[in-house]
Structures are given as C-alpha cells and as structure tokens.
Design goal:
- By secondary structure, this protein is of the alpha+beta class.
- It has eight helices and twelve strands.
- Among the domains are: 42 residues, no CATH class; 162 residues, no CATH class.
Length: 297
C-alpha cells in the first residue's frame, strides 16, 4: 500500500514537470524574442513626460468689464463658492451679464450732499485708485512739491490757466494733447489738485479722492449729478428696495474725462452693442405662454 502511494506521488510530479516544460516550449515558439530597437525607432519613441509637462495647465484668467473697456472697470471672474461665479461675462462683448456677488471688493461710498441719511453700509462703491497706474508716478513722485527744487517737475506752478504742451504727459496720455473736455475751455488744474496730483479738487480748492469723482463732476454737471443721485442716471446693482444695499457706479466708471467726445456723435458715452435676445427652446415657435397669467383675474 505504501509502495503504491509513493509511485502515485512520483507520477504526479513527473506529469507536472513535463507540463511545465511543454508550456515553456510552446510559449518560446509562439512569441520569439523581440529584436533590439533600431536607431530610427528609438528616435521616434516619444520621451517620457517631464513633471512640468505632466502638471495640469492653469485655468486662463477671465476678465470682463462692467461699464467701459480699457482697464477702467475690469473685474476678474472667480468662484464665490463651488459652482457660483462672482460675475458672468458675455462671450460676445466680454461685458458683465449678471452678478453672483455685486458687493465684491467694495467699500462704503462716503457721505454725499443730500444723501447723508443713507447708512454707510447701504451705499458702496468699488475703489479705483489702484487701477490708475500713473498716480504713484505723477501724483507723488513729481508733482507734489516734496522733491528738492532742482528735481521738481514742473519746478514752479504756472502763473495762469493757459495749457502748456508737456510732451512727456502727452506721450503717456495721448488724448490730452487735444483735450476737448469743456470744448477746450478748461485745463488740467480745473480738475486735478494743484499740489496733490493724486487727488482731484473742488471749487474751494479742497482735495477730492479719485474714488469720489462725482464730487468733482457735479461742479459743472449739476443736472447729471442730481439725476445720478436720484437713480435716473448711471448704474446701480444690488437690492431692489429703496432702503436696500446697492453698489453705486461713479462717473468715471462709465465716462473717460480725458476723451469726452465720441466721433460723429460728439457725445461722451460710447454706446455698447446690445446682446442678442434670449433664444426660444428647441421646438417652441413663440413665447405666447408668457401672456397667460397662472392666477385667473
């Protein structure tokens, strides 16, 4: 009995060894060894991606404008929360279509004549001083009379209000070479403070912040200031209620004071191309359903 068991075990082992050799032989015949790659094949093989190439590309920054183009009212699109953008930009004009957060990056507007009753947190504006790139150079480096007399530009203030050509200034702001604001009857220091060039100026000679240009513009455009104050002129976004919080748009967000004449129209506000109307859903021939009120009268 023991001899039979031993023989049976030896037989199974031999079968296993023979089967393994047979499988190896078959695999050797069916898959011959690959030939070494030629030089041409090695050159054609794409290189392994570097860590920089494998890294995901950063999303392109989306910038649209709110009132007028050219850096005056640019707003950068970002997510307030997942799936909710702070502003929706038009794919046609790059203008703002709707707001997820109309109060982003705003500060209290400050007190305005006849608007003292509005709480500070109910009337907000977006400060624009940081967008005025020439302020730091023109307003504080050269024109504030804090430099030594030999380095001041200009070394002394003009003795009259007749404009004098300044090539450097005209090179930076070409539109002021033929300043038409006021039909050519005013000049720079009607609006800019004499010694604080990073400020505007009122009729009393007091400085005005660039973030409150309505206090300057109202000196001459009183009717427009009244309409802007009453909500007839200009733009506001936010809550509908008269006592609700609103973001106010100030004069220079829509108007360029250095280029107030616009071609043949000879007017100061460049008209924007309107967006196309909303398209009807597929298969709907008209919008008559909108004429039906859900509650019978």
């Amino acid at each position: 009995m023991m001899k039979k068991s031993v023989l049976h075990t030896i037989f199974i082992a031999l079968v296993a060894l023979g089967g393994g050799a047979l499988i190896t032989a078959c695999s050797d015949h069916s898959a011959p060894p690959a030939a070494p790659a030629t030089q041409e094949q090695a050159q054609a093989t794409p290189p392994e991606p570097t860590p920089e190439a494998a890294a995901p590309q950063e999303a392109k920054e989306v910038v649209c404008f709110e009132s007028r183009q050219g850096g005056a009212t640019d707003i950068i699109q970002h997510e307030i929360q997942p799936g909710l953008l702070n502003v929706k930009c038009s794919p046609t004009t790059s203008a703002a279509l709707w707001y997820g957060d109309p109060y982003a990056d705003t500060v209290p507007m400050g007190k305005m004549p006849l608007l003292e009753s509005i709480p500070d947190d109910k009337a907000v504006v977006r400060p624009r001083s940081e967008k005025l790139n020439l302020l730091a150079m023109c307003g504080t480096a050269c024109h504030n009379n804090t430099l030594p007399p030999a380095d001041r530009v200009p070394p002394t203030l003009p003795k009259n209000n007749h404009p004098a050509p300044i090539p450097t200034m005209e090179g930076m702001l070409p539109e002021i070479a033929n300043l038409q604001h006021g039909r050519g009857r005013i000049w720079c220091l009607e609006c800019h403070h004499t010694t604080q060039r990073n400020m505007l100026v009122d009729h009393f000679g007091d400085p005005i912040s660039f973030d409150q240009p309505q206090l300057l513009c109202g000196k001459c455009h009183g009717d427009k200031l009244r309409d802007w104050r009453d909500g007839i002129h200009g733009k506001r976004i936010g809550e509908w209620a008269s006592t609700g919080k609103k973001r106010w748009f100030v004069c220079t967000e829509c108007h360029n004071p250095h280029n107030v004449q616009d071609g043949e129209r000879n007017r100061g506000f460049i008209q924007l191309q309107p967006e196309t109307p909303p398209q009807l859903p597929h298969g709907m021939v008209d919008a008559d359903y909108e004429k039906l009120h859900p509650i019978p009268h």
